[in-house]
Amino acid sequence: MSMAGNLRKVTGLRTVGGLRKVARLARRGRRRVDLSHPARSPLGSSVVNCVSYRDGVRGPAGGDLVDTVERVRKHGDGFVWLGLHEPTDDEFAGIAELFELHPLAVEDAIEAHQRPKLERYDDTLFAVFKTVCYVEHEERTATSEVVDTGEIMVFTGQDFVITVRHGRHGSLGPLREELESAPAQLAKGPAAVLHAIADHVVDDYLSVTDSVHTDIDQVETDVFAEAGARVDPGRIYQLKRELLELKRAVAPLARPLEELATRPIRVIDAEIQAYFRDVSDHLLRAREQIASFDELLNSILQAHLAQVTVAQNEDMRKITAWAALVAVPTMVCGLYGMNFDHMPELHWKFGYPLVIGVIAVACATLYRGFRRSGWL
Measuring CA to CA, which residue among 180, 160, 51 is closest to residue 98? Predict the structure, then answer.
């Protein structure tokens, strides 16, 4: 059996003993697989990275997952950071057994589509974050997607961090590199990684709200421009829908961050809690911006509808004025179109010029009056 085949068995075994057996098979003269390589490893199609840290410094590469965990637990310090992307039940089963993860949390991590939350299972924290990404478009339409969402689930224990990512964006590779460049912070343990992920997610919220603000400013400019009544209201409703999607990601995270910042939690050091308070302040800013954007969009929509109503009233006044002008010659011509033998000026030499003159004077008078009143 090949080395890749042995490692694939890891994610399908249900007991830690089975994991150790696979680890022993891997040692029999076969080349080790470096799980720290940025590419997908043979451990499973969902594994993105697996690295150990000690005193904030990246551990030696090489070995399988069980070896890495054993090495960390043997020294009694440091931790393992395992990154996954949309794992399946079979791929996550062995990992859940190795780290003794709660079945309910494992189910949530695999199924995704969860609200932001924080749950405690013995000495393990399970946190869910909604990630957001601004979708760039050359031209915004009523059907354009503005905000794309994903999820990051984080299992945090005394000596491990497991991140499970869902969605097309929200890669944690740059965040890992940033943390590795600050060993003092990374040396504070898994809680420091949890804080960095929370801070990264909330910073993305602020970045997306700034981009959405630009779109709202553009719509506001178009509405109050000279041809503002021609703006498609679907664009405004689209921004409101996307803003609601952003609100669903941001608002529920307030309570989990409050717990991380204020309540005593075994795996969260008191020093790290101060950092979570800072993240909570940033989240509050994002929530306030979203609330103000929603109110602003309501005002823009009301202003747009008022402009449409005013434009319709102006059109109706113009139509009424032209109808009044047409009514004068219609009435006169209709009167003299009746087939009676005895009508005034019917056989008079100047009857026709007189009628035309009366029609012209009446129409000119009406036109002048409508122009003065602003109807034409």
Answer: 160
User: 40: left (phi > 0), else alpha (psi -120 to 50), else beta?
Assistant: beta
The string of pLDDT tens digits covering residues 228-255 is 446 777 788 888 888 888 898 999 999 9
| Contact criterion met (CB below 8 Å) for 154 and 121 | no
* Local structure of 57: helix, strand or coil: strand
304-353 confidence digits (pLDDT tens):
887 777 777 777 877 777 887 788 787 777 766 666 666 666 667 777 77
Distance CA 291, CA 303 (A): 19
- CA dist., res. 286 & res. 298, Å (int): 19
Residue 26: pLDDT over 80: no
Counting every residue written for the chain, the total comes to 376
What pLDDT, on the 0 to 100 scale, is given for residue 126? 94
Q: Quote the CA–CA distance of 288 and 285 in Å, as a whole number.
A: 5
Helix (H, G, I), strand (E, B) or coil at 192: helix
Q: What is the pTM of this model?
A: 0.71
Residues 6+ away with beta carbon under 8 Å from 285? 206
Residues 163 and 154 sit within 8 Å (Cβ to Cβ): yes
Q: What is the torsion angle, in degrees rounded to the nearest 10, for the CA atoms of residue 299, residue 300, residue 303 and residue 308?
A: -140
Q: Which residues contact 349 (CB under 8 A, 6 or more apart)?
A: none
Best CA proximity match to 269, nearest among 345, 158, 151, 116: 158
Environment class of 329 (CB within 10 Å of its CB; exposed 0-12, middle 13-18, buried 19+): middle
- The dihedral over CA atoms of 111, 115, 121, 125, expressed in degrees to the nearest 10, equals 100
What is the Cα–Cα distance from 43 to 66, expressed in whole angstroms? 11
Beta bridge partners of 160: 80
Say if CB 218 and CB 299 are below 8 A apart: no
Least confident among 89-103, 160-174, 228-242:
228-242
For 127-179, the DSSP string reads EEEEEEEEPP-SS--TT---EEEEEEEEEE-SSEEEEEEESSS---HHHHHHH
Please answer whether residues 283 and 257 qualify as being in contact, where contact means their C-beta atoms are separated by less than 8 angstroms.
yes
- Residue 5's identity, in one-letter code, is G
